[in-house]
Inverse folding.
C-alpha cells in the first residue's frame, strides 16, 4: 500500500522575516559575539547597529551614547523565540551594568526601517 500523503517541501515555502530591536548595548560590545549569540535561535539575514549621541550628559565631561541594533531573521518565529529567551536571560557577559532590551518589531520591514533611518539622518 502506497503512502498518499503529500510531502512538505520547505524549498517552495516562503517564510516571513522577523526583525528584532536591540537596545542598551554597551559601547564595548563585540558585535561578532552578539551575532553568534543571536544565530543560536535561527538564521540571520541582516544586522545593523547605530550609535546615537544624546543631548543628555552622564557627567560634565562625558556625553551619553546609546547603541541601537536591528537584527533581521529569515523566519519571524525564530525572531520571536530569540526575543523571549534573551529577555529572560538576566546576566549577559558583555553587558553587566545595564539590562539589554530586545523587542520583536511586529509591523516593521527592512525597507521601512532604512527609510526611517535616512529621514532621521537628514534632520
Amino acid at each position: 500500500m502506497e503512502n498518499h500523503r503529500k510531502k512538505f517541501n520547505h524549498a517552495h515555502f516562503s517564510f516571513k522575516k522577523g526583525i528584532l530591536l536591540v537596545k542598551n548595548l554597551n559601547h564595548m560590545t563585540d558585535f561578532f559575539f552578539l551575532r553568534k549569540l543571536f544565530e543560536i535561535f535561527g538564521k540571520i539575514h541582516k544586522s545593523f547597529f547605530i550609535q546615537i549621541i544624546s543631548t543628555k550628559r552622564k557627567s560634565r565631561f562625558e556625553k551619553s551614547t546609546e547603541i541601537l541594533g536591528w537584527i533581521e531573521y529569515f523566519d519571524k518565529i525564530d525572531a520571536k523565540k530569540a526575543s523571549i529567551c534573551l529577555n529572560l536571560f538576566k546576566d549577559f557577559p558583555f553587558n553587566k551594568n545595564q539590562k539589554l532590551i530586545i523587542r520583536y518589531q511586529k509591523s516593521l520591514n527592512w525597507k521601512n526601517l532604512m527609510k526611517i533611518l535616512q529621514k532621521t539622518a537628514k534632520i
